[in-house]
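note to self — DONT lose this again. spent like an hour looking for the file last time. sequence + predicted structure for the chain T wanted, 89 res
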Amino acid sequence: MDASTVFGAGQQGLMMLLMVSAPVLIVILVVGLVVSVFQAATQINEATLSFVPKIVAAVAVLAVAGPWMMTTLVEYLQRVLQSIPQAVG
């Protein structure tokens, strides 16, 4: 196992992390931006007004994209575990 194999595996892991977490992070970012604009326009400074919509949006995204995320992660883990014998031997 040489350095390029290790770096390749690390790069694949980071790309998988970004791909799986992107839907939740993007939706929370958009919801936070909309709520911030609303708070700035109405001058309402309520802490729960920024927190609750983000939680609701995150739960909704996980309900919709959760099966895809789980399938993607399970397939990646299977590929990694099946490649261990070739990496060691």
